[in-house]
Amino acid sequence: MANDAPLHRDIRVLGDLLGEVLVEQCGRRVFDHVESIRLAAKAFRADPSPETRAALQAAVSAVEPEHRNDVIHAFSVYFQLVNLAEQNHRLRRHRDYDRSQQVLRGSFREAMRTLAHRGMTADDIEALLQEVGIELVLTAHPTEALRRTVLDKHTKIAAFLEEMDDPRKTPRELDVLRERIRTEIVALWQTRSVRKQRITVLDEVRNGLYFLDQILFDVLPRVHQKLEQAVEEQFGRQLLELPPLIRFGSWMGGDRDGNPNVTSDITWQTLVLHCDLALNKYEQKLRELGRDLSVSVDRAGADEDLLASLGHENDEPYRALINRMLERLSNTRKRLHGERVDGPDYASPDEMMEDVERMARSLAHHRGQRMVDAWLRPFLLQLRIFGFHMVTLDIRQHSGVHEQAVAELLQTAGLVDDYASLGEEERVRILSECLASPRPIRNPYHVYSDLTTEALAVFDCVRRGHETFGPRCVQDYLISMTQGASDLLEVLLLAKESGLFGWPDGPKAPPKSDLNVVPLFETIEDLESAAGIMRSLFENPVYRRHLEMRGWQQEIMLGYSDSNKDGGYLTANWSLYMAQKHLIRLAEAYGVRIKFFHGRGGALGRGGGPVEQSILAQPTEALRGHVKITEQGEVISQRYGHPGIAERSLESSAAAVLVGATREDTEEWAERHPRWFQLLDRASEISFRAYRKLVFEHPVFLEYFHRATPIDEIGRMNIGSRPSRRSQSARIEDLRAIPWVFSWTQSRHLLPAWYGFGSAMEAVMREDPHALDDLRRMYEVWPFFRTLVDNLQMALAKADMLVAREYAQLAGAAGEAIFPLVEEEYARTERAVLDITGYRQLLDNRPVIRDSISLRNPYVDPLSFFQVRLLAELRRDDLSPEEREAELADALQTINGIAAGLRNTG
Question: Where are the catalytic residues (predicted)?
Answer without folding.
Answer: 141, 565
